[in-house]
Amino acid sequence: VALAAPAPAMRRPGSRSSRGCSSAAVGVSGSAAARAWRWAAAGLLPIYVWNSNVRMGHWRGPSALFETDAQHWYRSAKVLHSKASELQARGDLQGALDYYLRSLEVFDDQAITDYCIARILINLDRFQEARERFDKILTGHGIGFHDGNDFLWMTDLGYLLVRLGVSKEGAHYLQEGLQRMPYSCFAWNALAVAQARQEQLQAALQSLTDGLQCDPDAVSMWNNLAVIYAYGNMGQQAGEALQRALALNASHPTVAHNAMVLTGRAALGAQPQLDLYIPFPGRR
């Protein structure tokens, strides 16, 4: 009896033939994906280069950089603070004040921002408002301050207190700040004024001597040196210091007044005046 040939076996999906078709399909698919990525990269590269050039253009100066950042990241306390500090350095105090206040609206517990506001208020002669800012700093967490920059608020607060007539407390903060950073010229002058008001004339002379090493052309310090010498009945030294102050700025109101007083040309009973000054940030 002839036997029938067995029927061909059915190939399972996982057979070699099936796997070969799948591999080919994957190869075609992978090649297409690679080409798509290459085309995408080629298309995106000009956009990336363009955006990079635009961003690098913002770095041409701090004004353009911080202005652009403040427009796009106006809810960032750091960005707003940076824009304010750039305006403050340029002398735009009101513009800087506006940005500092906006930064505090985002996050209020920023001691360094409150300090910058206080410094602007001092420069604008808004002393009581500045005092309130320092009170906030002293009762806060000190965010933004550390051992390397805490002299800033100490010297500025000390100056403010001397300006407000609180000489003893002001001298304390000034001394603390100057121990940390002795190159704060206006602080030496303010300390000398505080010491002179407390009749510590020798200490005041030493403070002015240290201050003049920091800034030998500070007219206020030469003026104050003349006054303190006069208080100490050292007429020759007072005259020499006054001449130096006149040579630096004869039109300075306090210097002009003291020139009249110390040379006997002022009205009867007129007294010599000590002078306080504080520069804009970044200046002596």
From TrEMBL:
Is Transmembrane among the key words of this record?
A: no
Q: Name one GO cellular component term.
A: endoplasmic reticulum
Which UniProt keywords are given for this protein, alphabetically ordered?
Repeat, TPR repeat
Give one GO molecular function term: mannosyltransferase activity
GO term, biological process aspect, one: endoplasmic reticulum unfolded protein response
Q: Which Gene3D superfamilies match?
A: Tetratricopeptide repeat domain
Record-linked PANTHER family: PROTEIN O-MANNOSYL-TRANSFERASE TMTC4, PTHR44227
Q: What is this protein called?
A: Uncharacterized protein
The protein's organism comes out as Pyrodinium bahamense
